[in-house]
From TrEMBL:
GO cellular component: cytoplasm
Record protein name field: tRNA N6-adenosine threonylcarbamoyltransferase
Residue ranges constituting the Gcp-like domain according to the UniProt record: 27-312
Domain of life: Bacteria
Similarity remark: Belongs to the KAE1 / TsaD family.
Function statement: Required for the formation of a threonylcarbamoyl group on adenosine at position 37 (t(6)A37) in tRNAs that read codons beginning with adenine. Is involved in the transfer of the threonylcarbamoyl moiety of threonylcarbamoyl-AMP (TC-AMP) to the N6 group of A37, together with TsaE and TsaB. TsaD likely plays a direct catalytic role in this reaction.
Keyword set, alphabetical order: Acyltransferase, Cytoplasm, Hydrolase, Iron, Metal-binding, Transferase, tRNA processing
BP terms from Gene Ontology: tRNA threonylcarbamoyladenosine modification
Gene coding for it: tsaD
């Protein structure tokens, strides 16, 4: 009896990723080619450049990944190809989708278009076999800040999202203002540890509102004014600490609100910002002080950031609950989960 192997392909933003997943949770190989260095001089992702890099990288990555996973005869060994079809940058998505369609047709292997956000959610499913719906999923990355209620796999309700910038984007923009380079999240996170979060007063977005909603552009602007006002006197570590506290406070308070509104007290976190020390600490404290009522799931970092194992997992679970796709699906930059 040969194992059910899924080839996952991800190219929605600035990472080209390919993985082979063996049902249910064994990652045979997972490769990510980051474009960070290509985009760093521009202080953010340049869409046209991203598509070009995906195009250069993708087939070589597929070949290497299959080799690493011990798949010498993809036509016979693969059971499914799962590819991110949205949301994301159109030019980037198209590269992965067209590659996957070509391989699917050539190898006569079924294909499935996967929602990138469902992929992030499945990073937790891969990492935590005991995680069962219903649970809340907080997805925080450079492109997204969303809370979903997972009623069952395949049945999701968006409880709230950002009205403007994503939280990771705010980190990146603040870092850019301070000349700290790109991506900004890890640098700010590190500097914040040496700073005093009480030094500067910054607004916590939507603090008093009774809706699950986020906004980070006002916070970013407040930082900009502060940088101008303080001039030479500015303490960068203190600013990082103050900014981080406001950003994380907004995330944590809305997770609590979502728990109260739904009665669901299990939360899984995903996306690049899940690497944030302060966010992890605050959520772990929340769980620790709840007397076992609140449960927090955090996947390992390599599954939090964009990767293709999570896409393969989302495709696999969909396939197993009877979802079928054919070559007619399209890349959709604004596909909502
Ligand atoms: O999920 P991801 O790798 O890519 C997408 O955006 O899809 O997330 C990247 C984002 C960047 O904005 C980066 O600054 C942020 O995650 N990030 C962090 C940390 N590490 C990465 N933000 C805050 N603290 C961190 N430690
Ligand atoms: Zn992502």
């Amino acid at each position: 009896d040969s194992p059910f192997l899924v080839l996952g392909i991800e190219s929605s933003c600035d990472d080209t990723a390919v993985a082979v997943l063996e049902e249910p949770r064994r990652i045979r190989a997972s490769l990510v080619m980051s474009q960070v260095e290509d985009h760093a001089p521009h202080g953010g992702v340049v869409p046209e450049l991203a598509s070009r890099r995906h195009q250069e990288a993708i087939m070589g990555l597929v070949r290497r990944c299959l080799w690493q996973a011990g798949v010498s005869n993809p036509m016979r060994q693969l059971s499914l190809i799962a590819v991110t079809a949205g949301p994301g940058l159109m030019g980037s998505l198209l590269v992965g989708v067209m590659a996957a369609k070509g391989l699917s047709q050539g190898w006569e292997v079924p294909i499935m278009g996967v929602n990138h956000m469902e992929g992030h959610l499945f990073a937790n499913v891969l990492a935590h076999p005991d995680l069962k719906p219903p649970f809340l999923c907080l997805i925080v990355s450079g492109g997204h800040t969303e809370v979903h209620l997972v009623r069952s796999f395949g049945d999701y309700r968006l409880l709230g999202a950002t009205r403007d910038d994503a939280v990771g984007e705010a980190y990146d923009k603040v870092a850019k203002m301070l000349g700290l380079g790109y991506p900004g999240g890890p640098v700010i996170d590190r500097l914040a540890r040496e700073g005093d979060p009480d030094r500067y007063q910054l607004p916590v977005p939507f603090k008093g509102s009774s809706q699950v909603e986020f906004s980070f552009s006002g916070l970013k602007t407040a930082v900009l004014w502060l940088v101008r006002r303080e001039g030479e006197a500015l303490s960068v570590p203190d600013l990082c600490a103050s900014f981080q506290r406001a950003a994380v406070e907004s995330l944590v308070s809305k997770v609590k609100l979502a728990m109260n509104q739904t009665g669901v007290r299990t939360v899984a976190v995903s996306g690049g910002v899940a690497a944030n020390r302060e966010l992890r600490r605050r959520l772990e404290d929340l769980a620790g002080s709840s007397g076992g009522r609140v449960r927090v799931y955090l996947p390992p970092l390599e599954l939090c950031t964009d990767n293709a194992a999570m896409v393969a997992a989302a495709g696999l679970w969909a396939y197993r609950r009877g979802v079928r796709d054919d070559l007619s699906f399209r890349a959709d930059p604004s596909w909502e989960l």
